[in-house]
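Q: Two folds, back to back.
A: First:
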Amino acid sequence: MGARVAVAGASGYAGGELLRLLAGHPDLEIGALGAGSNAGAPVTAVHPHLITLADRTFGPTTAAAFAGSDLVFMALPHTEAATLAGQLPEQTKVVDLGAGFRLKSAAAWDRFYGGDHPGTWAYGLPELPGARATIKAASRVAAPGCYATASIVALAPLLAHGLVAPEDIVIVAASGTSGAGRSATVSLLGSEVMGSVSAYKVGGTHRHTPEIEQALQTVLTGPGATGGQATISFTPTLAPMPRGILATGTARLVQDASTAELRAAVASTYHGEPFIHLLAEGQWPATAATAGSNAAHLQVVADPHAGRAVVVSAIDNLGKGAAGQAVQNANLMLGLPETAGLTALGVAP
């Protein structure tokens, strides 16, 4: 018998992806499945693709329901997650897929979310410098946001090696509709989304902005970094696809850094990483190539005409951007192989 894990918020898109990954995990046993208003419904009534869980039923999202779990995944709105986390025993490990415990700054929390700051947990992006040891030692981990993951893994190596200036970073990213969750919303109807790409939360108002800046700031204290304050202009867009994120980041080059230098920085940073891949020169990331995987595909080039670095990343927002990364964190916290139950291989066509 492996470790027993529970899922709070199991009926949403991220919760469903968690169940898909856990159903094939060699070392984890699926315990209680909390689903709020879907409590009492069969799992396959909500997630018909999870046929091996046809005998399972959703239950209530309460601390009592998760008693005896070795680890609880929370895929809940941040207010509900904060309440549940406070009710779980200290010895129960928790991975939160929501935003509640990502930010260190109470002022940033108040500005972008409002209300009392829930607190700060270990930040669950294993590929950041020093993060693995912190995650392994933690009992509570905040998994990064999807836009944040795509942006951070792309830009962190360039900042850590002092190849770009941190004060002038521009990120434009496109997400599939599942990133907005499963609740019925007019703007997410097929008739509204198909054949259209639209921007939203423009002008520094998207909630992942302080999270990206916070994570990028941590790499600016490394031996090769130039220091300074990480400042981003972030524009998210909604693309007519169910899943995937394509993020394009640009930053001002330092000392006319070349494409070769930029590629060397990314390659050395992620050497040996199982889920982050620098593509061959001339090959650009595409969301379809990462669908169903826990992979991030990167490409970087210098634009000497504009004096900027251009780095593009693609992830599955439900994979490396949510459920896959949560499982990666859980593996580390439970002392399991980090890649257990996960794949870097996408699904095609």
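A: Second:
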Amino acid sequence: MDNTQLEKLILASIDQRYQAHATRDLADYIFSNYLFQSFQPAFIGFIGRYGPDIVVYLADPGHVQALVDYCMRATKAYTYQRNQFINFTGFYDELLAAEYTRFFEQIREMLAQTTTIEGLTAATATVLQAHHERLRLVLSSYCVAAQPAKLNANPLLSTVPCEEYSAALQLRLLGLDPAALAEPILDIGCGASGALVTALRQQGYTAFGLDRLAPVGLAFFQQNWFEFDFGANRWGTIVAHQSFSTHFIHAHLHNSTSATQFARLTMQILGGLKPGGEFCYAPGLPFFEPHIESSREFAVAKTTIQAGNTLGIGEIFYAARVKKLSPT
């Protein structure tokens, strides 16, 4: 079998494992980790049949790195979809990369040394148990460090869905008419589908998306917000629907150190605007917008989003447009 076909089968096998646990949450991963260590007989059949080919494939560092990158992205997507306020960067990226590199090395060694179905079954159980216990340690240590609390009561293990919205809905809630947007346009938190960016570019606008899970493509920056260079006088319009400000609010309520980082990042974003450019976002930031206005470099306009009283977030449920004033 050639490498292209084998790679497709390996990736399909990886995807199947994530899909098999689609109904579980992060608390399950911490407190019922054994559930994630299981595997289907079909998996043993797959590695038993293609074992020699997989051993050769995994001997190539480039192939291993591609699989590590794939698994890291899949793990982050799985985690963020369950709690969007988790953000693996820096040190935790290094931990994940090291663990997946070790995992594939152990798989290669296992397949090189074991040929019987019984042996593969026993060895796979051992490798997966150790692998998921180490990943559990990474997640639990992150949660305790980011949100000090007993693990069994840590809010980061609660499910906080991360949804993606249609371009039309985003524009409507932000109160934006595409024809009035200054270019280039940057969508912060564009999501894995990049719906708004794609829609704008299809209409001829110069638009880009920034997201840790952004699609692959020239129009997208697959980066963390804190690592992105917003530049100076670079953007005509920056939009962020239910993304940047939602995370700033969470930090403001739960983590003063993180809130300070978001405050600095907000000013970096505003510095990236061209004179006359706008940063348009929802929900609002009533605790920080007075600071923005006090600089006298920006003007803040607010538009209430009509959603009734059922959400319980009336104070912040408005769209804000921060305009960078032209020098006098």
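Q: And?
A: Residues 3-157 form one domain.
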